[in-house]
Specification:
Blueprint (H helix, E strand, L loop, with lengths): L1 E5 L2 E4 L4 E8 L7 E7 L6 E6 L5 E3 L7 E5 L5 E6 L8 E8 L15 E2 L3 E6 L1
Parallel strand pairs: 2-11
Antiparallel strand pairs: 1-3, 3-8, 4-5, 4-9, 5-6, 7-8, 9-10, 9-11
């Protein structure tokens, strides 16, 4: 499984960014994709995930501001981030599991495959 993130960058507080995760190498159509982030000095946290049925779940810290979606071929996952705040500054990672979780999980241990990450910086 290969995961490649893109779309990170710098934005001012209140701005928006959209991250992409191109996924390949799955042997089954049943899988879950997740977004995680890690700020300097902090643990990596799960912020959202989507399964094969396109069900989604979000961490409370981003609920109502971030939205996960996938393209029609389900090979690319997106993270639309609105109303960004300085505390959203982090390295953002795409992760995958060869299981379509239901209910969806946001723990690191549930996702064995990881991308290289893309940096998001929000200035005040």
């Amino acid at each position: 499984v290969q995961l490649v993130e893109s779309g990170g960058g710098s934005v001012q507080s209140g701005g928006s960014l959209r991250l992409s995760c191109a996924a390949s190498g799955f042997t089954s159509r049943l899988y879950s994709l997740g977004w995680f982030r890690q700020a300097p000095g902090k643990e990596r946290e799960g912020i959202g995930a989507i399964n094969s049925d396109d069900a989604t779940t979000y961490a409370d810290s981003v609920k109502g501001r971030f939205t996960i979606s996938r393209d029609k071929l389900k090979t690319t996952m997106y993270l639309q981030m609105n109303s960004l705040q300085p505390e959203d500054t982090a390295m953002y990672y795409c992760a995958a599991a060869g299981v379509s979780y239901s209910p969806l999980q946001l723990g690191r241990k549930f996702f064995p495959y990881w991308g290289q990450g893309t940096q998001v910086t929000v200035s005040s």
